[in-house]
């Protein structure tokens, strides 16, 4: 299924930490993953954006050029890897809403994927950027809410109660594995 | 780094199992992963092909069209996920050579990645299609060879000695998790 991907990257201006000023959530996570990798803490990568390739040109003596392609809906979360011998799997989401997080921000395929990972004893969560804070929101708490309500969004009160605050840093910009330690180890 | 990706999919004709006739290695693995997923055995996905997007058009009232993009070198292996609570990570390779497997078939980034996964206690291996057979070739055996020789290719005798034969099937087409069981559980 091809999708309209509008301007995906939203700038997140954080007064809390000038080092990260203007750095978007994806970049903060990628930089953190690079830090974890280089310091032998974890091996976690962002999956490439899924693309449906329709047309490729092979100009003579030159590299292949994709000339028609479309964004596809991701069938899993964006990030996965290994930490302390455990399978880690998560996605990053942000919302400008202050009182609740729209469940529709997580694709149905991703919800299904999160359930499966829980079922197979993996560590899975969302990193939520909301009200100027970053939360590790456990997959278990997310799925519990989704399955036990007919509401289309999760109240911020539930997120701030269940979520674990992820501190912003200089290096790594977002030390989410500290929150993973608190939540799972 | 942009790469020239020639015709990546090579047809693999297998006399051993007519059901898989004409099915390429990637397709066999994808179908096996789907089988594992649907039968609640494992959650393993192929990562999307990494693409460097250069130009995107946004036609009015229509979905975004990528009009210029290039293939990038993968920085990890193609497949990962979770099985029996363990992190699983592998790549699929095939060669037409009969006596040895060229180490250059595995990108330096992928070799580095395999080492890291071993270091973090993950399960990592190559699925090698060679001489009409499919082998699970453990990351540990692969890295051992790469680090203890100056040769540019791995003799088939080493692969057939260390590797575990993966049987072809109707469903799943390539039951590689049986070989994982033998090698790691």
Model description:
- The structure is a homodimer.
- By secondary structure, chain A is an alpha+beta fold.
- In chain A, about 30% of the residues lie in helices and about 30% in strands.
- Chain A contains 5 helices and 10 strands.
- Chain A has a 6-stranded mixed β-sheet with strand order 1-4-5-7-8-10, with helices on both faces. The first copy, chain A, has a two-stranded antiparallel sheet with strand order 2-3. A two-stranded antiparallel sheet of chain A has the order 6-9.
- About 10% of the residues of chain A have low confidence.
- Chains A and B meet through strand 1, strand 3, strand 4, strand 5 and helix 2 of A and strand 1, strand 3, strand 4, strand 5 and helix 2 of B.
- Strand 3 of chain A pairs antiparallel with strand 3 of chain B.
Write the layout of secondary structure elements.
The structure is a homodimer of 185-residue chains.
Chain A: H1 25-38, E1 42-46, E2 51-57, E3 65-71, E4 79-83, E5 86-94, E6 100-102, H2 108-119, E7 123-130, E8 133-138, H3 139-147, E9 153-155, H4 156-162, E10 164-165, H5 176-184
Parallel strand pairs in A: 5-7
Antiparallel strand pairs in A: 1-4, 2-3, 4-5, 6-9, 7-8, 8-10
